[in-house]
Amino acid sequence: YFGDAHDCKAFFICSWGVPYRFHCPPGTIWSTAESVCNWSRDVTCQESS
């Protein structure tokens, strides 16, 4: 699992070398530290441009 550098609400799961993009449920964003979607108030996210 790894987060999308351009979208804090998205993450990728790789299977056989192919990345699949998923979105976190409403109100949550990807936590790189925990490798799960967590409440946005509990996660600091910096999107790159």
In short:
The chain has 49 residues and is an all-beta fold. It has one domain (2-42). 0% of the residues lie in helices and 53% in strands.
What is the secondary structure topology, with strand pairs?
Elements: E1 2-4, E2 7-15, E3 18-23, E4 28-31, E5 36-39
Antiparallel strand pairs: 1-2, 2-3, 4-5
Domain Chitin-binding type-2: 1-47
InterPro entries: Chitin-bd_dom, Chitin-bd_dom_sf
Protein name: Chitin-binding type-2 domain-containing protein
Strand order in the sheet with the most strands: 1-2-3
Write down how many β-strands occur, each being a DSSP E stretch of 2 or more residues. Answer: 5
What is the total domain count?
A: 1
Structural class: mainly beta
* Percent in strands: over 45%
Largest sheet: 3 strands, antiparallel
Percent helix among the residues? under 10%
User: What integer value in Å does the Rg equal?
Assistant: 10 Å
Distance between the termini: 21 Å
What order do the helices and strands follow? EEEEE
Low-confidence stretches: none
| Mean pLDDT across all amino acids | 93
**Shape label:** globular
Number of discrete helical segments: 0
